[in-house]
Amino acid sequence: MSNHNLEIKNKKAEYKYFVLDSFIAGIQLTGSEIKSIRGGKANITEAFCKIRNREMFLVNAYISPYADAGYSQHKERRERKLLLNKTEILKIERKLKDTSMTVVPLRLFINEKGLAKMEIALAKGKNARDKRDDVKQKDLKREMDRGLHA
Known about the structure:
Elements: E1 7-9, H1 11-16, E2 17-27, H2 31-38, E3 42-43, E4 48-52, E5 55-59, E6 62-63, E7 80-83, H3 86-96, E8 101-110, E9 116-125, H4 128-149
Antiparallel strand pairs: 1-8, 2-7, 2-9, 3-6, 4-5, 5-7, 8-9
C-alpha cells in the first residue's frame, strides 16, 4: 500500500501570507495519528507553529481519531512536536523577532520512506489590498487561459 503521493495542503496559507522561506520538518506522532494521516484524515488549515524552549510545536492541527485504535486513542488537536535541527530553529527564532512574521504549515505529506513530514514556512501576513491583488491576478490568468483554449 503506497501513500507517497498523499498530500494535505493548507490552502489558506498562500492567500493569507507571503511565503518567504520554507523548511521540511518531521512530526512526533502516535501510532493512531500516523494511520489517520495515511488515510488522508487530517486538516492543517487552522494550524500554526510556535517555538517554546528552543523546540518547534504544531498547534491546532486536526487529525481525526483512527477507528481501529482501540483504547489508545489520540486527542484530535493536541500539540505535536516538529522535528527540526537546532540551526533551523535558531534561524526561524531570529526571523520571528520581526513582529509581522509567523510560521505556518503549508503541507503535510508522507515521504518516500513512509514517514510523515510537514512543510512549514516563515511567512509575512498580507493586508487586504494584497489579497485583492492576488484574486485579480488569479482571475486574469483564468480569463487568459480560457481565451487560449476557446
